[in-house]
Fold this sequence. Notes:
This protein has 154 residues and is an all-alpha fold.
Amino acid sequence: MSKMIIAILVLGLILAPLAFAANCAASSYAGACSMCSFDAQGRMADTCWQGYKLQGTTCMSSKYPIMATAYSQGKCPQVDECASELQSCIAQYSSGDDKADCQEGSLAVCYAASDECVKSAAVKCGELESPCPGSSTAFILLFAGLLFVRMKND
Length: 154
């Protein structure tokens, strides 16, 4: 039984960095596309969309707290530039039929680009980048491998 618990904990440690790597805007849009209802004209239910939009904003704020604080103090105009770029991209690629846009995935590119824009804005607004982005994952994988070998030998 204890080996099962250890295996679950190791799996959790391996998958945890992937949760933080999730893109807020792209994930929120994908969630809205899959969970919100659409009317006969293909329009997404507004209350549902607003909930996913808020979820994306909350995700950004928790992922980049320094940027969020700077923005709330009027010190990070790069965030507004990202929002403007997103709206421009949506205006360019939207068909006017939310359901069709979700099915085709044409707007997903806009949201992914927005995530990259916000990441860049966060750094410009004082957010620290990890100096070794893959090192923690590599360490966790190494640790998990060693634990697996030890469990096999027991």
